[in-house]
């Protein structure tokens, strides 16, 4: 479905040579910003349905479990070679049963917790919204493909924030980055950069809903206030406040959710407005989609109409209905709750540590047996 | 043959073809397809903060821009010695080489064609909200079949984010728009249009139009040719950071421009003037440029395959090997 991204005028497309080979700029094919979005890597590589997302995350978790077991077996063989006596006596207790693998559900909760941490890291560095939003997007994409049993989320989070800052013109020297975050080493952060890029398939440009939000903010003013106010209690101030609320909504809900995978940035922006003030947003949508001018009353609709015109109205109505339905779905997705707790996350993090370094787990147990 | 990740991403470097500030460029082949490619290996050691910033920005923008007049990013890989490599389509010539090659004659239809292709590529960037910021003849690469492609997106960035400061230190000096010379922190796609306007002039003159010796001289050279901007023609110009103690040159008369660009038609001159308006808000945007009558006027733009590529003789590509 098509939603005008902003009030921006359409740009003319003249990218191709005409058939006879001569270059003429006169072919005017119009491309909307929505068409452009459909050519973005975000749309082509990173748009999924809820079912696809669930499936990818389950597959990532499965891949993580397999990797964990393989890592464990390798560590076990070398430990056995070093401590044959211990293994002869306690072999059946030194198996992969020692590993407390992370379940799919645990993994999601833990990742949610780290997402909230990313917000804090960004706040700590006073980073602009754009960096935070991009970091969040990178992180959520990374763990669609990989599991916490393959890459420790804390490390990935640091790398991603550092990388996002570099890509969004808020570059921080690696030294100052490390000194301001305790217990981090430059090598750990930089060591993961390429891995992250590769997982992102080098698609580093993220379209966030903030730009369309701004565009709609301007268009709300145009549609609802000019030439004269359409709603008696809606002024520039009201719309300004609504805009601020919607921006907070994007930061608090949308960016942390699956919405960016499932909806386009303008859809998310409109959903933010809709959820913050249904009445004003709905009025705007009706004006835009149903051509309900301030003076278009039922009486006009009662008049006998040209069938072509009524057909047109019909499709407009359908479009409006689909749009509202989409916005409502988007709101549900954005507001999906996933409660996390610091304690539980710390426990999962520790399990991850041993899953990623099984030799340490074995060493601990062997020590206990030989004591 | 199986096209799994490993075979798809194998390349051989054949020989070095150039070197820029932050990269060495090789001509090579993609092994499975035998496609000829340029491999830009990013120099390590220059940037100690992980992957090179210009390189990843170039990747960021090229990955989104698929257009006939923008260089294609074929792949990105890490070589065993941990160097980042960008695989680009191989483009053996650039506009600077041709401009300097005095044995190649430019017809006005050829110039029109290069200008048109540049504008198309740029239009695609701008409508994706990407500023190139470093347009100059040697970043306009030419394919063997005559297509012109915008390259070198190491300085590119996204625009349109409100409340964000940009750095005025972009665009190679000779192609730098007056708002940049004045140190403006907010600018738009108009800086790229200016650069294209100056390149357009250079194509007609066959020598750089505004070759300032340093940043101060650049102001002087620019305004001597195009007039010193005043509040009257450019409101609020005097509030820009570096706007002070300027020598005031009058705006050039049409006759003066006509004398300088003796071969240009009126329409060519009109378009150039609109691309090099001192006030960025008066400059044409890419859409307006592309719709300009100049492109409808006879002779029409030469078709790319009929454009001059390099002077005849010697099959050695006449590309300068060092930047
Ligand atoms: N796609 C390509 N095909 C063929 N040769 C290329 C290609 N890209 C670059 N080159 C060659 O490699 C040289 C270096 O290119 P690069 O883009 O790194 O830097 P530059 O633009 O010349 O200089 P700087 O980085 O200082 O701006 C170019 O001058 C050119 O000769």
UniProtKB/TrEMBL annotation, chain A:
GO terms for molecular function: cyclin-dependent protein serine/threonine kinase regulator activity. Residues 10-19 have a biased composition (Basic and acidic residues). It comes from the Eukaryota. SUPFAM superfamilies: Cyclin-like. Residues 116-198 form the Cyclin-like domain. Keywords: Cyclin. One of its GO terms (biological process) is regulation of transcription by RNA polymerase II. CDD domains: CYCLIN_CCNH_rpt1, CYCLIN_CCNH_rpt2. InterPro entries: Cyclin-like_dom, Cyclin-like_sf, Cyclin/Ssn8, Cyclin_C_2, Cyclin_N. Residues 1-28 are annotated as: Disordered. Belongs to the cyclin family. PANTHER family: CYCLIN. This is Cyclin-like domain-containing protein. The lineage of its organism: Eukaryota, Fungi, Dikarya, Ascomycota, Saccharomycotina.
Automatic annotation (TrEMBL), chain B:
GO terms for biological process: filamentous growth; positive regulation of transcription elongation by RNA polymerase II. ATP binds at residues 17-25, 40. GO terms for cellular component: cytoplasm; transcription factor TFIIK complex. Gene3D superfamilies: Phosphorylase Kinase, domain 1 (3.30.200.20), Transferase(Phosphotransferase) domain 1 (1.10.510.10). The active site is at residue 134. Residues 300-323 are annotated as: Disordered. It is an enzyme of class 2 (transferase). The keyword Transmembrane does not apply. Residues 11-295 form the Protein kinase domain. Belongs to the protein kinase superfamily. CMGC Ser/Thr protein kinase family. CDC2/CDKX subfamily. This is [RNA-polymerase]-subunit kinase. It comes from Australozyma saopauloensis.
